[in-house]
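User: Could you check the structure of this?
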Amino acid sequence: MNASHTIPGAPTPHAHRAPTRRRVPLEPRSARRFTIALACLGLSYALAWLELPLEHIAPAPADSAAPAAAALAAALVARVLLGLLYAFVALRHAWARWATVALCLISAAFVAPMLPLEWRAFPLGALVTGAGLAAKLVAGVLLMLPLRRQRDTRS
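Assistant: Sure, the predicted structure tokens are below.
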């Protein structure tokens, strides 16, 4: 029999099946931590969008040299990219999880010392920023903990 002629309807010998990525469920404690971390990320993301209109209410410093349109465009792009990163975290990509942990911790390290000055200038903005920062910090700590997968007990 010639190998170049196959039976109609039969799979070809060199056909590769598309790899199916089955999400292995997490242990209940890990799943709960991951859900809380995603909720905290969602809260911080919503508060980041809330900061945009508050930026226009806040008293502007006299030496602000950046045009308002450029600053708004940069803020919009940053929030869209952050939302995309958080979507990859929700899809349980490890690289996105660790990038988010790093961004959350760096954000807490650099923004937290500025909160007292923001409080003196614009208390409502400091509340929104502080709440978003707290949510990021909680999410970062929860995402640092290991995500244990359920063991397959079917044997």
